[in-house]
Write a structure and sequence with these properties.
This protein is mainly beta. Helices cover about 0% and strands about 80% of the residues. The chain is built from no helices and 6 strands. Strands 1-2-3-4-5-6 form a 6-stranded antiparallel beta sheet, with no helix packed on it. Strand 3 (about 35-55) and strand 4 (about 60-80) form a beta hairpin. The chain is elongated, with a radius of gyration of 18 Å. It starts with a strand and ends with a strand.
């Protein structure tokens, strides 16, 4: 997975800070197939990167990164090769409240 964690900008007088963050993740997924839907859980690792630029002060650029345990769960409804998924993912980022993602996806399986 590639996850764009977004950009944020703040300023206090002449000092400004802009932060850009992203993550890459890999998961192993286990499915519990039921008659109409599949339940699944996933576990893996996420590599996050955060780049900060400070203007108006002599600090310059601040970069931080790390690799953390990541996990999630979801439900999938299938109709032949077409499926719709509702999913939750989470991983920790140092010195923050972590990153959480809720997603709704449509997939098509070619096999």
């Amino acid at each position: 997975n590639y996850i764009d964690l977004g950009k944020d900008r703040a300023s206090l007088g002449p000092i400004g800070v802009q932060v850009d963050s992203k993550a890459y993740a890999a998961f192993a997924i286990g499915y519990l197939p039921l008659p109409l839907v599949d339940l699944y859980a996933k576990a893996g690792v996420a590599r996050w990167e955060s780049d900060a630029r400070v203007t108006g002060f002599a600090i310059g650029d601040l970069d931080d990164s790390g690799t953390e345990f990541a996990y999630g769960a979801g439900i999938q409804a299938r109709l032949g090769s077409l499926a719709a998924r509702l999913e939750y993912e989470r991983f920790d980022i140092a010195d923050t409240d972590g990153a959480e993602l809720f997603s709704l996806a449509v997939t098509w399986t070619f096999l």
